[in-house]
Write a structure and sequence with these properties.
The protein has about 240 residues and is of the alpha/beta class. The chain has two domains: about 150 residues, Periplasmic binding protein-like II (D-Maltodextrin-Binding Protein, domain 2); about 90 residues, D-Maltodextrin-Binding Protein, domain 2. The chain is built from eight helices and 15 strands. The strands form four sheets. Strands 5-1-6-15-7 form a five-stranded mixed sheet, with helices on both faces. The longest helix is centred in the C-terminal third of the chain and has 16 residues. The termini are far apart.
Amino acid sequence: MFKSIAHCAIILLCAALAGCGRDAAPANDAKMPERSDDGPLVLVVMPELPPYAYLDTNTGVICGIDIDIVKAAAARLRRPLEIRRVPFADMIPSVKDHKADFAAGAITITEGRSRNVDFSIPYAEEGSAFIYRADEPMPTMVRAEGLRVGAVESMTHDFYLTRHGIDPFRYTAIEQAMEALLARKIDTVFYDRPALVEIARMSGGKLAVTPRETRENYGIVVRKGRKDYLDAVNAVIRERKAK
Protein backbone atom coordinates (compact mmCIF):
# COMPACT_ATOMS: atom_id res chain seq x y z
CA MET A 1 0.00 0.00 0.00
CA PHE A 2 2.73 2.44 0.94
CA LYS A 3 4.52 1.76 -2.34
CA SER A 4 1.41 2.63 -4.34
CA ILE A 5 0.89 5.82 -2.33
CA ALA A 6 4.46 6.93 -2.98
CA HIS A 7 4.20 6.07 -6.67
CA CYS A 8 0.93 7.98 -6.99
CA ALA A 9 2.45 11.00 -5.23
CA ILE A 10 5.26 11.15 -7.79
CA ILE A 11 2.86 10.59 -10.71
CA LEU A 12 0.47 13.26 -9.44
CA LEU A 13 3.36 15.64 -8.97
CA CYS A 14 4.49 15.20 -12.56
CA ALA A 15 0.92 15.49 -13.84
CA ALA A 16 0.40 18.71 -11.93
CA LEU A 17 3.49 20.17 -13.57
CA ALA A 18 2.74 18.83 -17.03
CA GLY A 19 2.26 20.95 -20.11
CA CYS A 20 5.53 21.01 -22.00
CA GLY A 21 4.04 19.89 -25.29
CA ARG A 22 4.80 16.88 -27.45
CA ASP A 23 7.97 18.04 -29.15
CA ALA A 24 10.42 16.90 -26.45
CA ALA A 25 12.67 13.97 -27.28
CA PRO A 26 11.74 10.59 -25.79
CA ALA A 27 13.57 9.08 -22.85
CA ASN A 28 16.03 6.29 -23.48
CA ASP A 29 16.72 3.92 -20.57
CA ALA A 30 19.08 1.65 -22.54
CA LYS A 31 22.78 1.35 -21.77
CA MET A 32 24.65 4.41 -23.00
CA PRO A 33 26.18 3.68 -26.42
CA GLU A 34 29.34 5.16 -27.82
CA ARG A 35 28.64 8.15 -30.03
CA SER A 36 30.30 10.27 -32.70
CA ASP A 37 30.44 14.04 -33.08
CA ASP A 38 28.55 14.01 -36.36
CA GLY A 39 25.27 12.73 -34.85
CA PRO A 40 22.68 14.47 -32.69
CA LEU A 41 23.74 16.29 -29.54
CA VAL A 42 23.02 14.10 -26.51
CA LEU A 43 21.55 15.29 -23.21
CA VAL A 44 21.45 12.92 -20.21
CA VAL A 45 18.99 13.59 -17.43
CA MET A 46 17.29 12.05 -14.40
CA PRO A 47 13.73 13.40 -14.74
CA GLU A 48 12.77 13.55 -11.05
CA LEU A 49 13.50 17.18 -10.23
CA PRO A 50 10.52 19.41 -11.06
CA PRO A 51 10.38 22.10 -12.26
CA TYR A 52 13.86 21.61 -13.74
CA ALA A 53 13.56 18.14 -15.28
CA TYR A 54 10.61 15.79 -14.98
CA LEU A 55 8.44 13.39 -16.93
CA ASP A 56 5.27 14.87 -18.41
CA THR A 57 2.70 12.12 -17.84
CA ASN A 58 0.33 13.60 -20.43
CA THR A 59 2.84 13.31 -23.26
CA GLY A 60 5.32 10.72 -21.98
CA VAL A 61 8.28 13.03 -22.61
CA ILE A 62 10.89 14.68 -20.41
CA CYS A 63 10.61 18.43 -20.01
CA GLY A 64 11.34 21.29 -17.62
CA ILE A 65 13.43 24.45 -17.29
CA ASP A 66 16.74 22.66 -17.90
CA ILE A 67 15.40 20.82 -20.92
CA ASP A 68 14.21 24.08 -22.46
CA ILE A 69 17.66 25.64 -21.96
CA VAL A 70 19.50 22.78 -23.67
CA LYS A 71 16.94 22.55 -26.49
CA ALA A 72 17.41 26.27 -27.19
CA ALA A 73 21.20 25.85 -27.14
CA ALA A 74 20.97 22.95 -29.60
CA ALA A 75 18.83 25.11 -31.87
CA ARG A 76 21.53 27.81 -31.75
CA LEU A 77 24.09 25.18 -32.76
CA ARG A 78 21.74 23.96 -35.52
CA ARG A 79 21.97 20.40 -34.24
CA PRO A 80 19.22 17.90 -33.34
CA LEU A 81 19.00 16.94 -29.68
CA GLU A 82 18.52 13.46 -28.24
CA ILE A 83 17.48 13.08 -24.58
CA ARG A 84 18.55 9.97 -22.67
CA ARG A 85 17.30 9.04 -19.24
CA VAL A 86 19.99 7.75 -16.86
CA PRO A 87 20.52 7.45 -13.08
CA PHE A 88 22.01 10.56 -11.52
CA ALA A 89 25.24 8.73 -10.67
CA ASP A 90 25.83 8.10 -14.42
CA MET A 91 25.14 11.62 -15.66
CA ILE A 92 28.46 13.39 -15.14
CA PRO A 93 30.55 10.29 -16.03
CA SER A 94 28.61 10.07 -19.32
CA VAL A 95 29.61 13.63 -20.21
CA LYS A 96 33.17 13.13 -18.98
CA ASP A 97 33.54 10.01 -21.15
CA HIS A 98 32.08 11.79 -24.23
CA LYS A 99 29.02 9.54 -24.31
CA ALA A 100 26.90 12.67 -23.89
CA ASP A 101 27.34 16.37 -24.60
CA PHE A 102 25.19 17.79 -21.80
CA ALA A 103 23.75 16.78 -18.45
CA ALA A 104 20.96 18.66 -16.77
CA GLY A 105 18.43 18.49 -13.97
CA ALA A 106 19.18 20.83 -11.04
CA ILE A 107 22.87 19.88 -10.97
CA THR A 108 24.84 21.79 -8.36
CA ILE A 109 28.03 23.49 -9.55
CA THR A 110 30.96 22.17 -7.49
CA GLU A 111 34.72 22.41 -7.72
CA GLY A 112 35.10 18.65 -7.76
CA ARG A 113 32.71 18.14 -10.65
CA SER A 114 34.33 20.98 -12.57
CA ARG A 115 37.56 18.98 -12.81
CA ASN A 116 35.86 16.56 -15.20
CA VAL A 117 33.23 18.67 -16.98
CA ASP A 118 32.45 22.30 -17.69
CA PHE A 119 29.51 24.15 -16.14
CA SER A 120 27.39 26.90 -17.58
CA ILE A 121 26.87 30.11 -15.68
CA PRO A 122 24.33 29.57 -12.86
CA TYR A 123 20.69 29.78 -13.94
CA ALA A 124 19.08 29.27 -10.50
CA GLU A 125 19.88 29.32 -6.81
CA GLU A 126 18.00 26.75 -4.81
CA GLY A 127 18.83 24.44 -1.94
CA SER A 128 18.13 21.23 -0.09
CA ALA A 129 15.69 20.45 2.70
CA PHE A 130 14.18 17.57 4.63
CA ILE A 131 10.78 16.07 3.89
CA TYR A 132 9.17 14.17 6.75
CA ARG A 133 5.90 12.74 7.99
CA ALA A 134 3.83 15.66 9.24
CA ASP A 135 2.77 13.84 12.41
CA GLU A 136 6.36 13.71 13.66
CA PRO A 137 8.84 16.38 14.87
CA MET A 138 10.53 18.49 12.23
CA PRO A 139 14.07 17.28 11.49
CA THR A 140 17.09 19.57 11.43
CA MET A 141 20.68 18.86 10.43
CA VAL A 142 21.57 18.57 14.13
CA ARG A 143 18.68 16.21 14.91
CA ALA A 144 19.36 14.19 11.76
CA GLU A 145 22.33 12.51 13.42
CA GLY A 146 19.84 10.41 15.37
CA LEU A 147 17.45 9.78 12.45
CA ARG A 148 17.28 7.37 9.54
CA VAL A 149 17.86 9.77 6.64
CA GLY A 150 17.32 8.91 2.98
CA ALA A 151 19.14 10.48 0.02
CA VAL A 152 19.65 9.85 -3.69
CA GLU A 153 23.15 8.48 -4.20
CA SER A 154 25.89 10.65 -5.71
CA MET A 155 23.84 13.86 -5.44
CA THR A 156 25.15 16.80 -3.41
CA HIS A 157 22.58 16.00 -0.71
CA ASP A 158 24.34 12.66 -0.18
CA PHE A 159 27.76 14.35 0.09
CA TYR A 160 26.44 17.13 2.35
CA LEU A 161 25.01 14.63 4.80
CA THR A 162 28.28 12.66 4.83
CA ARG A 163 30.27 15.83 5.58
CA HIS A 164 28.00 16.36 8.59
CA GLY A 165 28.68 12.89 9.93
CA ILE A 166 25.43 11.33 8.67
CA ASP A 167 25.55 8.07 6.72
CA PRO A 168 22.25 8.10 4.79
CA PHE A 169 20.20 5.30 3.34
CA ARG A 170 21.03 5.67 -0.35
CA TYR A 171 18.55 5.19 -3.18
CA THR A 172 18.93 5.43 -6.94
CA ALA A 173 15.75 7.52 -7.34
CA ILE A 174 13.60 9.85 -5.24
CA GLU A 175 10.57 7.58 -5.73
CA GLN A 176 12.36 4.79 -3.89
CA ALA A 177 13.25 7.14 -1.04
CA MET A 178 9.66 8.37 -0.78
CA GLU A 179 8.37 4.80 -0.67
CA ALA A 180 10.71 4.09 2.24
CA LEU A 181 9.60 7.26 4.05
CA LEU A 182 5.91 6.49 3.72
CA ALA A 183 6.53 2.89 4.79
CA ARG A 184 8.33 4.22 7.90
CA LYS A 185 11.54 2.44 6.95
CA ILE A 186 13.31 5.81 7.25
CA ASP A 187 12.43 9.00 9.12
CA THR A 188 13.15 11.70 6.54
CA VAL A 189 14.56 12.35 3.05
CA PHE A 190 17.09 15.08 2.18
CA TYR A 191 16.63 16.38 -1.38
CA ASP A 192 16.08 19.45 -3.55
CA ARG A 193 13.54 21.65 -1.79
CA PRO A 194 11.47 22.72 -4.86
CA ALA A 195 10.67 19.09 -5.69
CA LEU A 196 9.95 18.26 -2.05
CA VAL A 197 7.53 21.18 -1.71
CA GLU A 198 5.48 19.85 -4.63
CA ILE A 199 5.56 16.30 -3.28
CA ALA A 200 4.35 17.51 0.13
CA ARG A 201 1.62 19.58 -1.50
CA MET A 202 0.32 16.51 -3.30
CA SER A 203 0.43 14.33 -0.15
CA GLY A 204 -2.80 15.68 1.34
CA GLY A 205 -1.12 16.88 4.53
CA LYS A 206 0.75 13.63 5.22
CA LEU A 207 4.16 15.15 4.49
CA ALA A 208 5.87 18.43 5.38
CA VAL A 209 9.10 20.16 4.30
CA THR A 210 11.64 22.04 6.39
CA PRO A 211 13.14 25.45 5.51
CA ARG A 212 16.11 25.38 3.15
CA GLU A 213 19.24 23.90 4.73
CA THR A 214 21.68 24.73 1.92
CA ARG A 215 22.17 27.26 -0.87
CA GLU A 216 23.31 25.84 -4.20
CA ASN A 217 23.87 27.23 -7.67
CA TYR A 218 22.52 25.06 -10.50
CA GLY A 219 24.23 24.86 -13.88
CA ILE A 220 24.09 22.88 -17.12
CA VAL A 221 26.92 20.34 -17.48
CA VAL A 222 28.84 20.57 -20.78
CA ARG A 223 31.58 18.41 -22.30
CA LYS A 224 34.96 19.79 -21.33
CA GLY A 225 36.69 21.75 -24.06
CA ARG A 226 33.56 22.36 -26.15
CA LYS A 227 33.53 26.14 -25.94
CA ASP A 228 30.95 26.32 -28.73
CA TYR A 229 28.50 24.23 -26.71
CA LEU A 230 29.22 26.20 -23.53
CA ASP A 231 28.82 29.55 -25.28
CA ALA A 232 25.46 28.48 -26.72
CA VAL A 233 24.11 27.39 -23.32
CA ASN A 234 25.38 30.55 -21.60
CA ALA A 235 23.81 32.74 -24.27
CA VAL A 236 20.42 31.10 -23.69
CA ILE A 237 20.70 31.53 -19.91
CA ARG A 238 21.65 35.20 -20.25
CA GLU A 239 18.70 35.84 -22.56
CA ARG A 240 16.31 34.21 -20.09
CA LYS A 241 17.70 36.20 -17.18
CA ALA A 242 17.30 39.43 -19.17
CA LYS A 243 13.56 38.86 -19.69
